[in-house]
């Protein structure tokens, strides 16, 4: 009986260790700021990263990784903010290994190790040329009721700069290595959400909005028509949608040709665009749940 119980415990432990880190609900919310050039301005990326289905490369299945968001600039001296482009791009696809995450470099057509979560205290993490990348201690954070190990690194600062979190990546942001040296440009992970639970890492961002976005708001919830249009477009919002939105229209060169804020949009918002030249545009609706974008043709 004791032998049978030992086998059961061993089997259960193997099952728990073999559980996948990621799935189709995995989302990262990140912030990027570069303020050295030009003087007086800061370049900002406010981005969301999510898994967007599968792709097969050389017989191996990877998650496709979609990055969406907005490019903005802060006018440091005046306090103004300009939005000048939307972000919609696919990053290197990823897959899980044994206590690790691999990515496939689309330029070199080679797979590389993105994160290794098998380190012990005293081990050195993969971090490029960082000198503060040895594991000082390991503790546990919880994504809902799921434990994830957190690898802490030595730091000379009063507060910790970056950690590596099992199955999530660096708190500097996904695709970035953990290192306790202040980065330039400034970049950090604000939230990670999965299966209805979130971990908040930094900033004032409300992580729960990612859950609402995943459960209630999707690209099909908004409609922008007609397409093509002549002088006016209509944006149809979901029922009971009562959140502030930013409506931005950019041309294919990335220049903003229209921008307007609506604190509580009507069910149908009409945007008059009689002076726009005939061309293709991207209409983006930014809200606390994310960004919805659609290409529109003006005749």
What does this molecule look like?
- This protein has 299 residues and is mostly beta strands.
- Helices cover 8% and strands 49% of the residues.
- It folds into 2 domains: 2-211, no CATH class; 216-297, Immunoglobulin-like (Sandwich).
Secondary structure: elements and pairs:
Layout: H1 2-17, E1 27-34, E2 41-57, E3 60-75, E4 81-97, E5 100-105, E6 110-116, E7 137-143, E8 146-152, E9 163-165, E10 169-170, E11 186-194, E12 197-200, H2 208-215, E13 223-225, E14 232-236, E15 245-251, E16 256-262, E17 268-272, E18 280-287, E19 290-297
The averaged pLDDT comes out at 80
Report how far apart the termini are: 78 Å
Q: What is the global morphology?
A: globular
- If strands are numbered along the chain, what order do they take across the biggest sheet? 6-5-4-3-2-1-11-12
Produce a short descriptive summary.
With 299 residues, the protein is mainly β. Helix content is 8%, strand content 49%.
Index terms:
single chain; about 300 residues; mainly beta; Immunoglobulin-like; four-stranded antiparallel beta sheet; 2 helices; 19 strands; globular
């Amino acid at each position: 009986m004791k032998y049978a119980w030992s086998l059961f415990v061993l089997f259960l432990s193997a099952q728990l260790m073999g559980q996948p880190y990621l799935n189709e609900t995995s989302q990262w919310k990140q912030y990027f700021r570069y303020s050295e050039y030009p003087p007086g301005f800061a370049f900002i990326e406010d981005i969301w990263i999510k898994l967007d289905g599968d792709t097969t490369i050389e017989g191996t299945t990877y998650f496709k990784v979609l990055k969406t968001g907005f490019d903005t600039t802060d006018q440091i001296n005046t306090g103004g903010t300009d939005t000048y482009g939307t972000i919609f791009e696919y990053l290197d696809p990823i897959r899980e290994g044994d206590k690790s995450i691999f990515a496939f470099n689309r330029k070199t057509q080679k797979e590389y190790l993105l994160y290794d979560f098998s380190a012990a205290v005293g081990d050195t993490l993969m971090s490029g040329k960082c000198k503060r990348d040895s594991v000082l201690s390991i503790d546990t954070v919880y994504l809902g009721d799921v434990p994830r190990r957190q690898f802490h690194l030595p730091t000379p600062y009063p507060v910790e700069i970056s950690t590596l979190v099992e199955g999530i990546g660096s708190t500097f942001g996904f695709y970035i290595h953990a290192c306790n040296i202040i980065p330039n440009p400034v970049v950090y992970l604000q939230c990670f959400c999965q299966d209805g639970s979130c971990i908040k890492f930094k900033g004032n961002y409300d992580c729960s909005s990612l859950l609402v976005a995943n459960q209630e708001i999707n690209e099909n919830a908004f409609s922008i028509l007609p397409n093509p249009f002549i002088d006016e477009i209509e944006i149809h919002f979901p029922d009971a949608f009562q959140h502030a939105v930013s409506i931005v229209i950019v041309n294919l060169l990335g220049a903003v040709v229209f921008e307007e804020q609506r604190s509580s949009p009507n069910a149908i918002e009409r945007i008059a665009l009689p002076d726009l030249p005939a061309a293709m545009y991207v209409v983006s609706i930014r809200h606390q749940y994310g960004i919805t974008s659609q290409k529109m043709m003006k005749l």
